From TrEMBL:
Organism annotation: Streptomyces javensis
Protein name per the record: Extradiol ring-cleavage dioxygenase class III enzyme subunit B domain-containing protein
PANTHER family given in the database record: 4,5-DOPA DIOXYGENASE EXTRADIOL-LIKE PROTEIN
Protein keywords: Oxidoreductase
Extradiol ring-cleavage dioxygenase class III enzyme subunit B domain boundaries: 2-91
Matching InterPro entries: Xdiol_dOase_suB
SUPFAM superfamilies: LigB-like
Amino acid sequence: MLIVSAHWESAPLSLSATGPGTPLVYDFGGFAQRYFQMTYERPDAGALAARGAASMPDSEPVHQHASRGLDHGAWVPLKTMYSYGDVPVLKTS
C-alpha cells in the first residue's frame, strides 16, 4: 500500500523507509504517554518501493528516505484497517 498524506511534504518526491522495524514517527503532542508507546509492525515494502520508483519518469527523481517511518497520518488508520500489520506499506511525500 502506498499512502499519500499531507502529514509529510518534501521535495524531491520521496518514499519512506521500507524495512520492517523502521520506527514510527510520533509527530503529535498533548496526548497521553500510552499513544507514544503504540507500535505498528509491518512487513518489508522494498519491492513496493522499487515498483513505485520505477513507475516515475526518468526526469522525476525519487528519493528513498532511509530513516523516515510512518507518521500518525498513516499508522493510526492502518492499526484499525489492517490490524495484523501484514500489508507492506510506505508513504510518499
